[in-house]
Amino acid sequence: MESKYVISKVLSNNVVITERKNKIYVLIGKGIGFAKKKGDFITDEDTIEQRFAAIEDEDKENYTRILKDIDREIVAVSEEIIALATKRLGEELNTHIHIALADHINFALYRIKEGIEIVNPFLFEIQTMYPNEYAIALSACELIEKRLNIRLPESEAGFITLHIYSGRVNQSVNDSLKYTKLIKDIVVFIENEIGISLSEKSLDYARLISHLKYALYRIENGKVLENILLSSVKRQLKKEYKLSKKICQYISEKINKDVPEDEVGYIAVHLNRLLNSVDR
Fold first, then answer.
1. What is the separation, in whole angstroms, between the first and last Cα of the chain?
2. Domains along the chain with CATH numbers
């Protein structure tokens, strides 16, 4: 009896919600829900391509609400996207994504149907900071169009990216967005300091954003990446180092953490590359 899953809801031919030992499981497999109904058993393990223990105990009520209030086709495609992300990334995502992603997609589709424009001011930063998750999000948008016949704008792929990334690192989407916004704010700060609008198409611009992402992680978590060239940077890149100190003071004020001098030096090097690439 242990291998039996009791169907509580059929979302599509390929996705079913089941229960076993008082736990909710999402089962995904080609044709797994075909001709099935609530109360049926799934016992043939070979039909199960992917299986998720969907929800922690404290979130069961919210997931039950999702299953009740959101169209089953939307929940089904959300679960397929989670399965796709899990497979491509080779890792499990935090179970809260089963609630958050379905809820987000449902609201996104509502806004599209109502003609409400979806704006994502951080799209380029998201693409640069989370390239693997963004590639999955583009596939997710294709899957949504295939299943629901609704095309999502590229801006929406950016938001789905944040959900996937947040599921990987076990943090809220708001926290992921906070760092994305902070990096954009830092770029604006740099632009104001040097009096130049930076080109998003520049490779050095992308490198700077990527470095800032990892630098913020290290600063937040008290990790120091030793900079063996620090003394040379301070001597040879005086202008960039001075600017980097201003930037790091700005970062320190924003996240209430001291920025190690090693990080100041690394950012100065990226600034040097960036400034050299700017067509004055």
1. 73
2. 1-53 (2.30.24.10), 54-171 (1.10.1790.10), 182-277 (1.10.1790.10)
